[in-house]
## 1
Amino acid sequence: MRAAIYRGPGEITVEEVPRPEIESSTDAIVRVTHTAVCGSDLWFYRGQSDREEGSRVGHEPMGIVEEVGDDVRSVEPGDRVFAPFVISCGRCEFCRKGLHTSCVNGDSWGGDNGGGQGEYVRATEADGTLVRVPDRHADDEDTLEAILPLTDVMGTGHHAAVSAGVSEGDTCIVVGDGAVGLCGVLAARRLGAERIIAMGHHEDRLELAESFGATETIAARGQDAVDAANDLTNGGANHVLECVGAASAMETAIDVCRPGGTVGYVGVPHGVDDSGLDVFSLFGDNIALNGGVAPVRAYADELLADVLQGTLDPSPIFTKTVDLDGVPEGYQAMDEREAIKVLVKL
Ligand SMILES: [Zn+2]
Ligand SMILES: [Zn+2]
């Protein structure tokens, strides 16, 4: 089969690799029909995080079940399914408390499971991992493109909003106008926030944030952005969604959080270890820091229900579509900020 391979910073190639096979009775093989390039893929693409050269990439697969192991009960060949960015069993202590990202039987895409940006993947723990799309929606292209972000960014944006404690009537600030931040806006609106202030650096993305439900936007940088947010909210918001992961974004999130408020953070931390997180900035104003890597499997069913009933549609974050051969071009477009998120249709 063919799959995208990491060949070093700035270099993704599409190569012939062995097709994953059923190895355990709980495995399923999925023929990938849709996948995506992720903002988190850019960290290794830019050489900012380590990744083994020659490894398969991608972690947001959707497709058709091709084959299942003897113990798989929830899906069968021919079913349309999607999978979160990590594999989880659904029955261990952590899965049962909704923390699927800490699953003791968990695994990642890549290696010989196949990366999400390739023709086939092996879902180990298929019953816990795969989410079935009901048959009547299974071939509707628009619906599938609205579902695909549930593999990662929509669930992650939702986790930011939940972690920040957003509920009916709240004022919140979303830091970051990438795919996760935009999904954070959708999530905050869905949870009933009354004022949603989106902060970012790109006018076009902030326009999309407005169409997703942001009531105000701030395009400034640094202290100007913080001052603008604090002016708008008369001293910060009680609920702040940190959707970037860079140390500067975390600082901004804390600086625009109202005393006693909560920052929900979901961005993969980068640079925070070098500069150090200023715990005193949290201490002085009793600001709570909540969140972490999003257990998107925990949210998949409720978000899927909303997509299927037509009240949630994150698909406008896909501003570029490529085929498998176009994956390297997709990385480049995201690296150069030409695309918010790239949809890959196989
Ligand atoms: Zn992702
Ligand atoms: Zn588990």
Note: The chain has a mean pLDDT of 96.
## 2
Amino acid sequence: MPLVGIARLASQSELLEAKRAVEYFEIPTRSLLNRTKPNMPFRWTINPYRGCEFGCKYCYARYAHEFMELDAYAFEDKIYVKEPPEFLLRQELARTPKADPIAIGTATDPYQPAERRFRRTRAILEVFAREKGWHLGLITKSDLIVRDLDLLGEIARRNVFNVHLTVTTVDEKLARLLEPRAPRPQLRLQAVRKLRSAGVCVGVNPNPIMPGITDSERALDSVARAAHEHGALTFGGGPLYLPSAAQKVFLPFVEREFPHLAARYHKAFEANIHLSRAYKDALAERVRRIRERYGLASGIIEYRPELWAEEEQMDLFGVADEEGRDTLKTGCNSPSSTTTCPKS
Ligand code: SF4
């Protein structure tokens, strides 16, 4: 039967815009703890999701979707949620040495929008909030993390625990371009303050630092200053690197938004996914100088948690610093200092 009236009008209407549809899938999980390559600051990583809806233009982790025969853009639209993790995680922790540092959220954001609904990160934190004596880290650029302040504070009392908020820029307009669906930088900085108030060691990383876009002294200084003002304890950043799947998204983005940088970006990344040693060294020096300006540490804060696994043994072997505080040298790699995580 031919369409009539409003049905006919609707069928003939021109498409103005299609709202982005994100699909979520549950993916079977054989192992939650993934071993890292040597020389990484953590021995194990946990990523509760594959894919990330925040869709940062520079995201290096897009390659992971290519393993599933999906393209670099599907990384933002097809999100794979790992099976409920509690049982598997407890099993894997039982055969993992406690001196092995574990990081949550190294490849995809553990507080991306899917977490509101599927709560896999929270389930993982619930396991660690009943554990003691682990060396843990968590990386995010979402203020959703404050939903879990209760668990995060408890984990920090029982384990050496460092949280890192990623803030690439404090320029809201630039952040919107680079990280179109991530929470605003100001919201992330407010999360830093709340985490400190909950007794969690928290730092800010301006990662990845992008040549000509976020790497100026002024740009990095403004992130470090804001981090310091919001109570962050650490500041450390590394340069952009672009595996081929990431290049497919980032290089066209640079051509569109930063045409004056396009030729230099193509040249820098045509033969190598990493920037040159000379650039990395100069950048590391700039970050070090800025960090010292605000009295921030690099990397991981080591401290003695209030409740520690080997409490009795450590009472025997604990060392007292010159101010008489007990400090604990943990097995964490790349420690910047050994200190008692100051309470707010
Ligand atoms: S938040 Fe992290 S994982 Fe997610 S898109 Fe951005 S860089 Fe990638």
Note: Confidence is low (pLDDT under 50) at residues 312-340.
